Amino acid sequence: MAYHQHKKEIDMLSSKLRAVIEGEEPGHLLLEPSDPYYELARAINGVQSMQRDISKDFLTQQRGYFSLMEYLTIGVMVLDQDQKIYLGNHAMSELMGREMNVKGQLYVNEVRTYELSRLIEETFQTHQDQHQEIKIEATNKNVDAHVVYVPINSHHFLVMALLYDITELKEIERMQMDFVGNVSHELKTPITAITGFTETLLQGAMDDKQTREEFLKIVYQESLKLTELVEDILSLARIDSKPQLNLSMLNLHAFITDILRTFKPELEKKQIEVDLQIPADCQINVDKNKLQHVVNNLIQNGIKYNKTAGKLWISGEVREKDWCLSIQDTGYGIPKDEQERIFERFYRIDTSRSRQNGGTGLGLAVVKEYVKALSGKIEVKSQVGVGSRFAVTFPLEMKDNLS
Fold first, then answer.
1. Selected residue with higher pLDDT from 364 and 85
2. How many CB atoms within 10 Å of residue 303?
3. Of these four, 35, 135, 175, 376, which has the most CB atoms within 10 Å of its CB?
4. Within 13 Å and on the Cβ side, how many CA atoms surround 139?
5. C-alpha span between 133 and 109 (Å, rounded)
6. Is the pLDDT confidence value at 19 over 90?
7. Where does the Histidine kinase domain lie (predicted)?
8. 111: number of CA atoms within 13 Å, CB side?
9. Of the ranges 1-5, 67-71, 245-249, 374-378, which one carries the lowest mean pLDDT score?
10. pLDDT value at residue 273
11. In 3D, which of 192, 187, 195 has the Cα closest to residue 360?
């Protein structure tokens, strides 16, 4: 009788242990304290409780790990040693242009970028990390790809693909290279002219008064172009490096009147009539120096690209939540399909005409950056052969970054 009772209890303990090993959650064993297997049963119950706590902690950590992966801004994909996807986060799906969190699928069926597939394959074959900048055609994204070999133990490993989006950095690099190339080209033109004409003068042309005066005028005009280009470049550099505002109250009518006085010789030379339509008591709160760059460039363009005996309208007003200023001319006008591009650095509508008028291709880029620094917006309306109207709008309430 005792033998059968002991065997029954041993079978029950064995069954309980197998269930715990297999991850099941059977009820606790309940034996009398006097039972010879009481302490063993308590120990098995303790193991089950500990395993349950460990599993709970593991699941909590796993959920936290997966959540963290989802919130990462870099693309992450983890592969098991059978080359199957274990997980892929949202950023990876965004970069690849398709769902990559397809657990259990072979990566070769899901990764459709050859360069990335090759890096992964090399990592599986060599057990060495791989690194390369690649372009994902599906999304037109440039990424810095790292494929990492992660050993787990002597028999198991994972492969992790990490993609860093560097599209914006590549675009900035391209813009910087374009800017340097354009600056070099624009500087070369007046410098070449100045060098060539001065060299000719030094070789004997200065002895001819008419030739000397003609060449010196050309050198002077080219030096003005060079000065204007350097000033525009410096203006852009100042905007990028010092965006702070120094605000003060300003009478807009008096401010524009003072600026127009500096353009009097140019206005008289082209016989341009100015119609100033700004109330005498128009008060605004603004950074005077930055606004001056905007107005100077817009008036200068209104004169350069205006016709002889043309007209220039300058109007401004304070409204309920903002104030605006517009400058309208009777000039060449801008084709509709090019109006969005005129604010690009070094963009010219008509290269020959712009060069003839001394344009650097940077003036409106400078205007756009200063308007942006003043939290404003600029719009253009133009008709070829009729003229152009540039309107800038700024908020009435503007924060002083220096305060």
1. 85
2. 19
3. 376
4. 19
5. 22
6. no
7. 182-398
8. 24
9. 1-5
10. 93
11. 187
Which two tokens mark 120?
Answer: 């992964």
| Mean per-residue pLDDT of the chain | 81
Which domain CATH number covers 59?
1.10.8
Q: At CB < 8 A and 24+ separation, what contacts does 335-341 make?
A: 335/384, 336/382, 339/380, 339/382
Quick check: 381 and 389 in contact, CB under 8 A?
yes
pLDDT reading at 402 higher than 60: no
Cβ atoms of 160 and 76 closer than 8 Å: yes
What is the C-alpha separation between 348 and 360, in angstroms, rounded?
A: 8
Residue type, 177: M
376-385 as b/e: b if 16+ CB within 10 A: bebeeebeee
Q: 248 and 376: one domain? A: yes
- What is the residue type of 90? H
Q: What's the pLDDT tens digit per position in 305-338?
A: 899 999 999 999 998 889 999 999 999 888 887 7
The answer to whether the predicted template modeling score (pTM) of the entire model surpasses 0.85 is: no
Which of 131, 165, 199 corresponds to the end of one domain?
Answer: 165
Domain that holds residue 60: 2-68
Question: Which tokens go with 304?
Answer: 């350069």
102 shares its domain with 222: no
Classified as helix, coil or strand, 276 is strand
| Joined tokens for residue 138 | 């599906």
Terminal CA-CA length for the chain: 94
Same domain, 23 and 89: no
Positions of E strands within 117-178? 130-136, 141-151, 157-165
Q: 3-state class of 190 per DSSP?
A: helix
If asked whether residues 398 and 281 sit together in one domain, one would say yes
Instruction: Measure the CA–CA gap between 127 and 79, rounded to whole angstroms.
Output: 13
What is the rounded distance in angstroms from the CA atom of residue 74 to the CA atom of residue 96?
A: 12
The answer on 145 and 207 residing in a single domain is no
How far is CA 7 from its chain centroid?
75
Question: What is the number of other CB atoms lying within 10 angstroms of the CB of residue 154?
Answer: 6
| Domain final residue pick, 222, 242, 262 | 242
Q: Domain count of the chain?
A: 4
